[in-house]
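worker-3 :: picked Cysteine desulfurase
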Amino acid sequence: MFNVETIRKDFPILQRQVNGKPLVYFDNAATSQTPQRVIDAIVDYYSNYNANIHRGVHSLSQEATDKYEEARLKIQKHFNAKKSHEIIMTSGTTHGINLVASGFTSLLKKGDEVIVSALEHHSNIVPWQMLCERSGAVLKVIPMNDEGELVMSAYDDLLSEKTKLVFVNHISNALGTINPIESIIKKAHAVGAAVLVDGAQACPHIKADVQALDVDFYVVSAHKMCGPTGVGMLYGKEEWLSKLPPYQGGGEMIAEVSFEKTTYAGLPHKFEAGTPNICGGIAFGAAIDYMNNIGFKKIDAYEHELLEYATKRLLEIEGLKIYGTSKHKTSVVSFNLNGIHPYDVGTLLDKMGVAVRTGHHCAQPIMDYFKIPGTIRASFAFYNTKAEIDVLVEGVKKAKMMLS
Ligand code: PMP
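worker-3 :: tokens ->
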């Protein structure tokens, strides 16, 4: 049974007040909150076995190494990677994307084409633009429509034997649209192109199966799925990770070093230079355990209820427009009040204890499409309630009255 009141007790922060009002946290797409189990994993690490990993013979180092590698196995199992060395520990989605974009520099030549979508976060645009500058490859864009969906017929037209790489997000952070990545991947593979899927917004809602998707790269951040900041994972098919050169040089990623020649370690260490976020990695594993204990099917069903309720209630407000109206979307509502700047609404909502995000959400091309400076974005997690949505709706009504 899914009992939200029991679940809420797992999150100490949900008990606090903000500006004298109970916190209503609707900025989950920016970062999720942390359950006690994950906080405990962090405290346990620093209290009991803080040590550097992979190179110590002493007990603490062994213990930390075992726990860290255990976390990698949990991540492997969760995303159903075939091999644990296909999981590269990163500092987050941005790091994972930059690692792949950097690696492709030597694999692309002038005139090759790479395809991005109009629905991307800046971190899945800028590293590829930098790659194009380095390699002479050309960036093509899958356009979007008024519902905030990708125009798949245009994607078909963009694909050709020149296409080497396609990078799209699984779910848009600004609008919540779930993209048809299965079809995007199949079509890219049909012309011999590799696909990177940015799963930053999908990981809190969907249990992605990288083998079933047949995706070449999949990247996430732990902090989007109840884990800590500064840690994430890059999944890459072994054949691709073997082809890509190392991203950073340093300790941990080498086999032998001499001034004449250095050879690199095998996977995954080739991509893991330096001391990693050991505690973060272990806590990431604890977050995956926590979410799986609740169950992604239950999470998805409950969050859809929240999405439907919030959409219906917000649309009762005259002059309120929702951006991103696809039937395939997750629990994100991006909206504006006619003639009122989103920032002003966000500031007033904060006074009422309601945390929403305002602005372009690092997705300026989407805002340009709608010809707006930004939106107010309320993003719901499985620990939110309909009663909290009522507080948001009343707050938006009040803000409208004060700002009109
Ligand atoms: N892609 C998407 C879709 C995101 O929502 C985010 C985080 N807002 C990122 C990438 C970047 O994630 P991080 O800042 O954790 O690297």
